[in-house]
Amino acid sequence: MATPEEEAVSAPMSLGAHLDELRRRLVVCVLALAPLVVAGMLAYRQLWQVILLPARRAIAWMGLPPDRLSQFFEMVPQSPAYPLFAVTRLAFYASLLAVSPVLLGQAWIFLSPALLDAEKAALRRIFTMGALLFAAGAVFGWMYGAPLALSFLIPFSAGLEGVRNLYGIDDYLSFLTRVSMAFGLASETPLVMWALARAGLLRCHHLRRHWRPVVMAVVVVAGILTPPEPFSQIALAVALLALMGAGYGLVRLAENKRFPRPPDDI
Predict the structure, then answer these.
(1) Domain boundary residue among 121, 144, 179?
(2) Across the chain, which distance is largest between two alpha carbons, in Å?
(3) What is the pLDDT of residue 27?
(4) Contact of 170 with 78, CB cutoff 8 Å
(5) In angstroms, rounded to a whole number, what is the distance separating the alpha carbons of residues 54 and 8?
(6) Mind giving me the DSSP string for 9-38?
């Protein structure tokens, strides 16, 4: 027999009650996010070094000393306010990444009353692993994916007569953001494959039978997610294929658990 507390949880909520609960969750998210954004803007000099980090790493990978950065890489603001916008934008993105556990927790509090126990257990794992994989992929893209592309693009344009490497601040930050987001989304590949396998929608023989279209789809997706230049596209495509290899192993594990085979079945 259900306890009064369980009956209260399972009782349907009115639309007004749902909206009130949603408002409370949003207020908590804003209160968690706003102080970090302000703190990031106050530490704008340190944040600017984070913006320059991919370019510095690219210069280092080109075999040049750090003091040669301004010789091969310069940024110009499209307006007097653009440096402020760039710092604010990065502070917001960094704050989102830092408070993502709080944001996911609030989303979980709002959604969990409508879920069954089995669904709660599965989604709890998916939420946790998804957040960790996305954060790891985004950081990898910022630290390695973007510098790899810049290490090819900067010397290419610098070798053209009459061309100076002058980049708009907004264009440069958009490039970094797009590469980081692309690697973050790509890092979700093993988790998505595992979830589809657990649901019975993906089997190992599907991947083996259709590996050519899968590789073609990976190349197309890498081209869509990354900026229109080949180096980050190739890096993302290689990373996606490696992640799909890891996902294949997870699919096999999920498949063996869901569809156990006889010992003599190979």
Answers:
(1) 179
(2) 82
(3) 92
(4) yes
(5) 52
(6) HHSPPPHHHHHHHHHHHHHHHHHHHHHHHH
Establish if 61 belongs to a structural domain: yes
Task: Name the CA radius of gyration of the chain, rounded.
Answer: 23
Tokens representing 186 are 């790509």
Q: How confident is the model at residue 5 (pLDDT cuts 50, 70, 90)?
A: very low
Contact 120, 9 (CB under 8 A): no
Count of C-beta atoms within a 10 Å radius of residue 137: 24
Total residues belonging to the chain: 266
How many domains does the structure of the chain reveal?
Answer: 2
Nearest in space to 75 (alpha carbons), one of 150, 181, 149? 150
Nearest to 236 by CA among 173, 177, 187, 192: 187
Residue 30: domain span: 15-179
CB 176 within 8 A of CB 142: yes
Q: How far is CA 41 from CA 47, 54, 87, in A?
A: 8, 20, 7
What is the distance between the alpha carbons of residues 249 and 25, in angstroms, rounded to a whole number?
A: 37
For 37-64, what is each residue's pLDDT tens digit?
A: 998 888 888 888 888 889 888 888 888 7
H helices within the chain, ranges in order?
Answer: 4-10, 15-42, 44-61, 69-72, 82-98, 100-111, 117-140, 146-158, 169-186, 189-198, 204-209, 211-225, 230-258
Rounded-to-integer distance, Cα 104 and Cα 3, Å:
28
